[in-house]
Design a protein that fits this description.
With about 290 residues, the chain is of the alpha/beta class. The chain contains nine helices and six strands. Helix content is about 35%, strand content about 10%.
């Protein structure tokens, strides 16, 4: 087996603490499934660190999947003028810019507006805000794409949309189906998890640090593999919980564990895409 445990997280961009529908749900499956519903992102981040630190102390190999994009369309880092490996430069920059407080108050609208100013000198590529947050550099409606050198969708989203899946753009920040706000508030959490001293040496991010491989974890010793997931790729077992988000994370954790036991989970980590996918845009596991 590739892993000993599986942690699946449904993220949220709520600006106030919330539980139940449309909030954060996490499922940790080792021998049984632990389902939790933290009310804030800080609480969720701390709980994930706690779970991973405990697993590492027991030399467990853990798969970790969050349900928001781990990267942006190719060229994002370069247009921002960020040096170094593109994905890592973006993670570091967003962690520097985002202020996400223990009560879920955050500055994502200000960050998106400032990024638009840097990227295009005006509105776009980020779009979609409540009317009270609209401004010249961040508008309610979408501007035409491509926005300069930036496409609307990553290659993985283009692939999904061409096959009939309604994947949304990471630039879309607000209203139904949007993932942009979750990404702005989520990537800094991934950066924190990736760089936590007790976890940094044993953590890797697929496919940025592993490449495209069918054997993404070592045979022995503690190991943590982070990978982007989208529960919409998989059928939902509604019998697992009355709330869809909770049923999705619990079901996906169990499915990955079942596939791992059967020896077929490894194929999901194999992608045959361009260099930008592996170095900057990322990919959705199972697509």
């Amino acid at each position: 087996m590739l892993f000993d445990a599986y942690l699946i997280v449904d993220w949220s961009a709520n600006s106030t603490p919330k539980h139940g529908k449309d909030s954060i749900w996490l499922a940790y499956h080792e021998h049984e499934t632990l389902l939790e519903n933290p009310t804030t992102r800080v609480a969720a981040r701390n709980r994930v660190i706690e779970l991973l630190s405990d697993a590492a102390s027991r030399s467990r190999r853990v798969f970790v999947g969050f349900d928001f994009p781990y990267g942006y369309p190719a060229g994002f880092a370069q247009v921002l003028g960020l040096p170094g490996e593109p994905w890592r430069a973006v993670w570091t920059e967003l962690a520097r810019l985002i202020d996400d407080r223990p009560n879920n108050e955050n500055n994502r609208w200000d960050v998106a507006a400032a990024l638009n100013e840097r990227l295009s000198g005006g509105a776009g590529p980020f779009w979609g805000v409540p009317s009270t947050q609209a401004r010249p550099t961040l508008t309610i409606t979408k501007k035409p794409f491509p926005c300069g050198r930036l496409q609307e969708y990553r290659r993985v989203e283009q692939r999904l949309r061409s096959s009939g899946r309604h994947a949304h753009s990471v630039w879309k920040l607000f209203t139904a189906g949007s993932v942009g706000s979750q990404t702005l508030l989520g990537i800094p959490v991934l950066e924190r998890l990736r760089s936590t001293p007790a976890l940094a040496a044993i953590s890797r991010v697929w496919p940025f640090e592993t490449g495209s491989t069918e054997t993404p974890s070592p045979e022995r010793g503690p190991f943590i593999l982070h990978a982007e997931i989208w529960p919409g790729v998989f059928p939902v077992d509604r019998t697992l919980h009355e709330i869809v988000d909770a049923a999705q994370v619990a079901g996906l954790a169990k499915q990955f564990a079942k596939e791992d036991v059967a020896g077929v989970l490894g194929w999901r980590f194999k992608v045959d895409e361009a260099d930008a996918t592996l170095r900057e845009e990322g990919w959705i596991l199972g697509t």
